[in-house]
Specification:
The chain is mainly β and about 100 residues long. It has a domain of about 70 residues: Molybdopterin biosynthesis moeA protein, domain 3 (Beta Complex), CATH 2.170.190. About 0% of the residues lie in helices and about 35% in strands. It has a 3-stranded antiparallel β-sheet, with no helix packed on it. The chain has a 3-stranded antiparallel β-sheet with strand order 3-7-6, with no helix packed on it. About 20% of the residues are buried.
Amino acid sequence: MADIAKFDGYAVKSGETRGAQDQRPLPLAGYARVNTGEVLPRPFDAVVMIEDTWDEGGIPRIRKSAAPGQNIRRTGEDVRAGGNSSSRRATGSGRSISVRSRPTG
C-alpha cells in the first residue's frame, strides 16, 4: 500500500519548500509530476496542486510552502479498524464478499 495524490500537481519534499512566499516565489528543485490518484513516489511527502504553481523557463515555481502530508491520502486513511474496506458482489455467484481489517495491538 502507498500514499496517494489527492490532486494533480507536483510531489515535493515539504522541507525543501520552506521560505516560499508571494513576494519571494521558490523554484522547485526536486519534484515529480503526479496526477490525482497516483501513488506518491518516495521520498516525497506532500503535493503542491498544479493550480498553485506556474512555469518559468521550464521550472515550476510556488508561492506557498508545503506542509508534510499536504494533498495526499495516507495509506489506510479510508479504512477504519473493524470496518469493511470493501463489499462487493462476486460476479455470477450472488454471494457477497467482505474484507475486514485485522485488529492490531
